[in-house]
Amino acid sequence: MGKTLAYLRASTDRQDAKNQRHEILEYAHRAKRTIDEFIEVTVSSRQDSRQRRIEELQERLEPGDILLVTELSRLGRSTGEVIILINQLVTLGVTVIIIKQNLLLSDEAPDMTAKVMVTLLALFAEIERDFISLRTKEALAAKKAQGVALGKPKGTLQKSMYDKDRARIEELLQHGAPQTRIIATHLGYGATKSLSHYVPLSGSALLSSVLSLYA
User: 4-122 belongs to which CATH class?
Assistant: First the structure.
């Protein structure tokens, strides 16, 4: 008998996570299932699969296991990403239960209605992305035709994921730490390319730190 895992992905709103946990526990009670483990993560959809613990989830699940999730959108940043993950899990022999959509996906007892619904969701999502892209392009073209300057004013700094660790990055650079080591060992996120762009843009202190390495 395989284990049952529940996956919760919520925003920074703690109530969201509590609601998901409550919904999963209610389902487990009705279905007389015992949940062996909760995998909970509080992140934004923009973060990568490692930060959303999707890779960890895939590694933990084995043939015969059951994955519980409140709704499809919790499993990925896009419908296409969700479909790929579900296909991988079902092929592995994992049963995926989506509570709100009342879907049960399994290679042993395939639910054709569920499969058709998932396929349609993927199609609708693709169409919606095309519409959004088209509307965005049309809106930008209209503004440009009206003479509206697009983008941020020159010299404006955008918020960066590195801002919260700015002091730490500055200190590490002052001690001569390579950017690759800062990302891999000290931060645990980001990429060398984005950090190298952040360094000269984030202010004179960081820029001075970098230049001092070559003085």
Answer: alpha beta
